[in-house]
Amino acid sequence: MRELIEAIVKPLVDFPEDVQVNIHEEGQRVTYQLSVNKSDMGKVIGKQGRVAKAIRTVVYAAGSTQQKKVFLEISE
After folding, report:
1. How far apart are the first and last CA of the chain?
2. Which residue segment(s) compose the domain that 27 sits in?
3. DSSP one-letter code for 28
């Protein structure tokens, strides 16, 4: 899943080396924390959050095969 998130986000940003995905698992919940360079936040979120919503849709669809609930958080 980490590779999927990185494959989606890295082509969108100006600083792909700053893209990091951290994983936190708690019981039936898996949270992927995506952090990017400050100047790339707008590109990852998009107008009215459309890009972020699209990324989350793909990640949630890929995570539906797992028995755990998948969440994606975007931070600086």
Report:
1. 20
2. 2-75
3. T
This prediction has a pTM of: 0.88
Distance CA 71, CA 73 (A): 7
Residue 49 sits in a domain whose CATH number is 3.30.300.20
Overall domain count for the chain: 1
pLDDT given at position 66: 82
Strand partners, 32: 23, 72
pLDDT digits (tens, 9 = 90+) for 33-67: 999 999 999 999 999 999 999 999 999 999 888 88
CA-wise closest residue to 11 among 43, 37, 57, 41? 43
Structure tokens at 64: 């539906």
Which residue from 7, 63, 11, 54 is spatially nearest to 32, judged by alpha carbons?
Answer: 63
